[in-house]
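ok new one. same drill as before - structure tokens go in, u give me an amino acid for every spot. 102 of them this time. try not to just spam alanines like last time pls lmao
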């Protein structure tokens, strides 16, 4: 498989699996329930994940349910993969322009 084919395949895989721009924020908190572990153990806190996204100059945030965490992390990672792939292609085109190679 040549380099081009490989890139193309990973691109279609990325598109099928979903993609999202943003960063994952981990919130740590105490729930306030008297009998909870977080009340007894001073170091223990509940964690919940949020996706933070800057869009149209504004920041928005969405809660990621526990059962969605793996899925959303995958979406976020794929965004970075795709971004890196685009940057790589851009760099290749830059080189082509330098070398007048069509
Ligand atoms: Zn608690």
């Amino acid at each position: 498989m040549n380099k081009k084919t490989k890139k193309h395949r990973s691109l279609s895989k990325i598109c099928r699996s979903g993609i999202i721009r943003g960063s994952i924020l981990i919130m740590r908190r105490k729930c306030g329930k008297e009998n909870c572990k977080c009340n007894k153990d001073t170091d223990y806190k509940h964690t919940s994940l949020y996706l933070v996204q800057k869009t149209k100059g504004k920041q928005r945030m969405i809660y990621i349910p526990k059962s969605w965490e793996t899925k959303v992390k995958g979406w976020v990672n794929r965004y970075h993969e795709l971004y890196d792939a685009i940057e790589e292609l851009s760099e290749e085109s830059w080189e082509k322009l330098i070398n007048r190679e069509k």
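The pocket of zinc ion is lined by residues 30-31, 33, 36, 38, 46 (CB under 6 Å). and btw The mean pLDDT is 89.
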